[in-house]
Structure formats: structure tokens, C-alpha cells
Amino acid sequence: MTMHEFLHQVSAKNADQPEFIQAVSEVVETIWDVYDSNPQYRKAKILDRIVEPDRIIIFRVPWTTDAGEVMVNRGYRVEFNAAIGPYKGGLRFHPSVNLGILKFLGFEQIFKNSLTTLPMGGGKGGSDFNPRGRSDDEVMRFCHSFMLELFRHIGPDTDVPAGDIGVGKREIGFLYGMYKKIRNEATGVLTGKGLEWGGSLIRPEATGFGTVYFAEEMLKTKGMSFDGKTVLVSGSGNVSQYAIQKVNDLGGKVVTASDSDGFIHDPDGIKGEKWEYLMELKNIKRGRISEYAEEFGVKYYPGARPWGIPADVALPCATQNEINGEEARTLIKNGCICVSEGANMPTTPEGVELILDAKILYGPGKAANAGGVATSGLEMTQNSMRISWSREEVDAKLHSIMKAIHESCVQYGKKDNFTNYVRGANVAGFIKVANAMMDQGLV
Ligand code: NDP
Ligand code: 2IT
Fold first, then answer.
1. pTM of the full predicted structure?
2. What domains appear along the chain, each with residue ranges and CATH number?
3. 120-165: pLDDT as tens digits
4. Are 401 and 371 in contact (CB under 8 A)?
5. Pocket test for ligand 2, best of 103, 164, 238 (most atoms within 8 A of CB)
6. How far apart are CA 198 and CA 191, in angstroms?
């Protein structure tokens, strides 16, 4: 079977899942030569097996609003691949969630987790529940109902969920509370827990910090650093917040942040008190990014994304397909030298192609945002050992993992003085999982 025949088969089988097809195509197109030149992989049909999840659980999530109205959402857990460890990956609560999106995220997670150097398989889950505008009590009832079904499918050695869009410390708390109530077990079954109840220092910061550490490694290969660089960030949630903080620490200036309604442009940089304001606005008040513009008298662009503002570095940290071909072209034209993806698959295939053709530094999500799940892995280790490492210890481990991921990408992606990090990440991630699958036979 040729690569095109294989991808055609995947597309035909999953015709209603464009994001999943997109994620599979990107991986398969970059690893096909490795696959093709290994007859044992072909004989064992590793690729046919790796695109089919181990299992998918879909369930009803009934809950009541504060006004007493009965609501029904759909819950999912995609247990994709456990060749190298228990299923591991976040839960996303967002109205756009559907099976195709969770399968794309679960598929990416297999290779990302493989890159982290830690023993974690790939999974993802979530619901089409929209937390926006819901009270804490409503969110609690939803999370409790979600866990009333999910609990029977997960466990610290089986499947360990965490946060993603719409799921942060508050939601993990409610989910963990119900899990413990049902099982009567305090274990590391979820990560991203609060520090007082089993969480790890640096886990909240890890994805954003890691994305910046990865960009820093890429910049270093060109003899550059963040010092004095102008940086675009999209989103204003967990990943964005700590990406902004780390860029500030390294001497760069972040001039944008966004949410699903628009973006703000602050030419003086989102730093100091302004960063504190953003943290409070998004995590406590749960307000909109437009309020930042009102508070500090900067420009707000409703219904737009930040990629038209000239800058040296772009850190997409909101959601999938948020940099299209035209936006990639604009970034390059405006002199952008580095894109490091905090979000999962934020660049469309056309955008990726343009960025790679321009030969600028480009860290794909499964490498650049792997610091989050890597630190989740460190949280699992601490839970199993019943100890807590210091902030400095966890940060140092995160930093060295991001450097190791960068090295793997260079090892497998460098050719003629140019590193294609997409190829590097996919090949490095794939080989480990494929070899583990070979060792374990046809299961
Ligand atoms: P949050 O829910 O904390 O923040 C998400 C941010 O992105 C918000 O600003 C949100 O705006 C915006 N956003 C969400 N959906 C859309 C959309 N459809 N269009 C435009 N903006 C949108 O999530 P995280 O920061 O945790 O996640 C951000 C990205 O990072 C996701 O792609 C996630 O998969 C990825 N990621 C997260 C990790 C983690 O540890 N949390 C680890 C690795 C990757 P609004 O408030 O308007 O919804
Ligand atoms: O996309 C991701 O890697 C995450 N949302 C984090 C997953 C995790 O298990 O920490």
C-alpha cells in the first residue's frame, strides 16, 4: 500500500473527523519513509493499528442548572494507545468538542508523550459542556456527574486524565473529589491537582514555560535568545499566562493576548502589574480580554487574531487551526523568525508548509507543548513515591526534558543545516511507540 492509499483509507473511514484526518496526515507524511524502510513495521501493520484507538468511551452527562433545569451533555474518553505506559492526556470542556477533535488530540498525545522520555501512553477526553457563564455550583454538578461514569474507566495505573481547554484546577478538584468519594482511594488518578491535595509545583506553569524553553533552544541554534524580542501570544488561559511570564523573565516583550472574542495589542508589553491583572481577570473574575484594553487604554481588536502585528516570535497558545496560510504568510513577511506552539495543532497544513518553506524556526505542538504532560508525569511520580519535590527541582527537570525533546527533534529532523522539527518530533515519537508495539505482539 502506498502512503496515499493509506491516507485515503483513513480519510474514508473517518470522513466526519477532519481534525483527526489532519493530525494523522501530518504524522504519516513525515514518517512514511521510516515506516516503509522497516518491513517488520509493515508486516505488523503498525500504522493501521496506531490510527485505531484501543477503545472509546462515550457517555451521557446529566446535570442541573442553578435554576433547576435538567441539562444533558456528552462525555468522552478516547483511550488511544498504551504501548509505553498508562493512557495519559487532558480533558477538554468546550462546546466545539466532538469525537473527531478528541481523536486528533489523543493521536497527537501518543507521540508527544513518547517524546517526553517518560512512560505514558496517549489518551484524551472531555465534553461539549460550555463552562462559560456557569456558576461554580453548576460546574461542580457537571464535573461530579462526569466522574460518576468516568471513574470506572480510569485509575493511576490505567488512565490518568488532566486539564485542557476549560478544565483547570477548579474542575480537577471537583472531579477528584467525586473519584475519591466513589473509590475511597487517594491516588494520582488525575494530574493538575491543587498543591494541598497531591498536585505538583510547576504543573500550572509547565506548558507555557516549556513552550518558551523549547523556543529558547531553537533560538540558541541560531545564536539568538529572547532578550529584546517582540513576541505575539494568542489565548489568555493557562498556557498563555505562563508563556507570557517566562518570556518576560527571559527579557522578551509580549505585546498581544486574546480570547475567542478578539485580541489586545499592548505595545509596552504585558508585564508586572498588567500580567497580574490578566491572571486575576482570567482565573478569578473569569472575564474577557477586552477588559484588559479598557483597564490599560490599549487597542482591542474584536473578532480578530493577533498574527498581523509585526513581531520576532509567535507563540500560538489558544486552540487548533488558529494560524491559517494567509496568517502564516503575514507572520513571515513581517519578519517572524520563530513559531513555538503552546496549543495543539494551532497551524493549518497550509500554514505549516509555508513556515517550513520559509526555513524559520518552527516547533510543532507535540514537541513544544510537551512540558505540560511531562510535568504531569512528574506529578504521577511524586504521588507514587508519596513525596513532593521543590519548585526548583521540578522546574529543572522540566527544563532538561524540554532540552531532551529538542535534541531528539534535531537528531531525527536535521538535514543540510536545517532542522525540520515536525519530522524530527514525529519520527522520534513514532519509533519508540512502534518498537514497544512490536515487542508486545499483536494486541
Ligand atoms: P484554557 O481554557 O486555560 O485557555 C484557552 C484559551 O484559548 C482561552 O483564552 C480561550 O478563550 C481561547 N480559546 C479556546 N478556544 C478557542 C477558540 N475556538 N477560538 C479562539 N480562542 C479560543 O486552556 P489552555 O490554556 O489549557 O489550553 C490552550 C491550548 O493549549 C489548547 O490547544 C490545549 O490543547 C493546549 N495545551 C494545553 C496544555 C495544558 O497543560 N493545559 C498542555 C498542552 C497543550 P475563551 O476564554 O474565549 O474561551
Ligand atoms: O495537551 C496536553 O498535553 C494536555 N492538555 C496536558 C495533558 C496532561 O495529561 O497533562
1. 0.98
2. 3-185 (3.40.50.10860), 206-363 (3.40.50.720)
3. 999 999 999 999 999 999 999 999 999 999 999 999 999 999 999 9
4. yes
5. 164
6. 8
